[in-house]
Amino acid sequence: RLFGGDILFAGGVGRWDIPGGSRKDLIEGIRRYLLPLPPETEVYPGHGRSTTIGAEREANPFLQEGRS
């Protein structure tokens, strides 16, 4: 289980439009540290419904950008 706070959501990612935020760093961090986790890893975000790493790997539009 992963208690993800405001980093990764079902179908979304955290905000990067706040002072010091960086879209590039946020997405790279998720790809580097979270997506390698097993697909069945449950993610409990700070807001909204829970999801899994596998579901977000497959369908999260923010994580699909730049991939062919």
UniProtKB/TrEMBL annotation:
Keywords: Hydrolase, Metal-binding, Zinc. Its EC number is 3.1.2.6. InterPro entries: MBL_Glyoxalase_II, RibonucZ/Hydroxyglut_hydro. GO terms for molecular function: hydroxyacylglutathione hydrolase activity; metal ion binding. The keyword Transmembrane helix does not apply. Its cofactor is Zn(2+). Signal peptide: none annotated. Residues 44-68 are annotated as: Disordered. The keyword tRNA-binding does not apply. This is Partial hydroxyacylglutathione hydrolase. It comes from Methylacidimicrobium cyclopophantes.
